[in-house]
Amino acid sequence: MTDDPYRSLAGELRRVGGFAKDATPFSELPWADFLRPRVAESKIRKSFTKALDQAKAVARTPEARYLPPGCPG
Fold this sequence. Notes:
This protein has one domain: Orthogonal Bundle (Helicase, Ruva Protein, domain 3), CATH 1.10.8.10. Helix content is 51%, strand content 0%. It has four helices and no strands.
């Protein structure tokens, strides 16, 4: 599998509490897809910390509520 910066971003978002942990394998994949149009890949590569801050912000939007297992708010 090739490196997917959005999957890495989603995994870190989960690790810092941006969304609830889930035992379901690959639960970060829907989050990675959600983040793709919302966080520029160039931002992830240039400043992962800033990209993570942006991901935290969009994880709290109403658009993210459908994602498993849900954002703690």
